[in-house]
Specification:
4 strands; 288 residues; 58% helix; two-stranded antiparallel sheet; two-stranded parallel ribbon
């Protein structure tokens, strides 16, 4: 007997019918940020760091995440020119509600913002700050990928495995008066790559919290953040093999290397994570 688990996904991202905002993507995005806030607040409380500094950190992190993710999508993935090109129509860059956020761009701007915050505001070592922000970013990322799921975006390739999603809004071209009119049997079954990635980030969050609290990873500078880089971008690298290209730029390097843009951007971050862990363990061994 062949058992199949196919989910017919017709979830509507609109909270209020016929209004694009507010939407479930935005709600999940904000929820992830709020949960991350409470996680790092507990960390700061342990070390008697005032809530005023935490509030300042939020003022750095939220804009850095949104601006970095948006610019990352614009510069890494495009499209650049033409009727839908960001450089041809710069005003489109500001339309974040229409989708298009890249985690690699967010990573770059967050790292810059945290460098400034750690050196100029809280006056702590850079790695000290990165170790404490790792788990909050992981849980926020998990919720953002759930937002991609409700938006029917960042889906996986068509698959013949005995599970998968049929994404109505992604694959049904018969849209009349705002209604998708397709037979479910006509819609291909795909890997829910967005859900895979969300679950991977939830798992990463659990591992990072265990490492930070139970293994006292906060005492080994760089260990938690190094683990974060390996987990988050390692999972990203692997899941990209199942993920459908989001833009034309995703497949620019496929012919020669078999890797897409997202995977190439993940490689140096994973390598940086490995270096940080080796460094943290070596330093810990020398101090023992």
């Amino acid at each position: 007997m062949n058992l199949h688990l196919f989910i017919n996904w017709s979830f509507d991202a609109e909270i209020i019918p016929e209004y694009r905002t507010p939407n479930w993507y935005g709600l999940l995005f904000v929820s992830g940020m709020i949960l991350g806030y409470f996680v790092i607040r507990k960390m700061f409380k342990q070390e008697n760091i005032s809530n005023d500094l935490l509030d300042k950190l939020v003022m750095y992190m939220v804009p850095a995440t949104v601006i970095g993710a948006r610019l990352g999508h614009v510069f890494f993935y495009g499209p650049y020119w033409g009727p839908e090109g960001y450089f041809s129509h710069p005003e489109e860059i500001f339309k974040i509600w229409e989708g298009g956020l890249a985690s690699h761009g967010a990573a770059v701007v967050i790292l810059l913002a945290l460098w400034y915050f750690s050196n100029k505001v809280i006056h702590r070592p850079y790695l000290w700050m990165l170790d404490r922000i790792a788990a909050p970013i992981a849980i926020a990322g998990a919720f953002i990928r759930l937002g991609n799921l409700v938006n029917h975006e960042m889906v996986g390739y068509v698959t013949d495995v005995p599970w998968g999603f049929r994404f109505l809004h992604h694959d049904c071209m018969n849209l009349i008066d705002g209604q998708y009119l397709c037979d479910w049997a006509e819609i291909p079954v795909r890997h829910p790559a967005n859900l895979y990635e969300s679950l991977a980030y939830f798992l990463s969050f659990g591992i990072l919290m265990f490492l930070y609290w139970k293994k006292q990873g906060w005492k080994k500078q760089g260990l938690v953040f190094g683990t974060f880089l390996i987990l988050i971008f390692g999972f990203r690298f692997l899941i990209e093999f199942l993920k459908e290209s989001q833009t034309d730029n995703d497949s620019l390097v496929d012919v020669s290397t078999g890797l897409n843009t997202g995977q190439w951007l993940s490689v140096p971050l994973v390598l940086a994570g490995i270096i940080l862990i080796i460094r943290a363990r070596k330093k810990s061994f020398e101090e023992a």
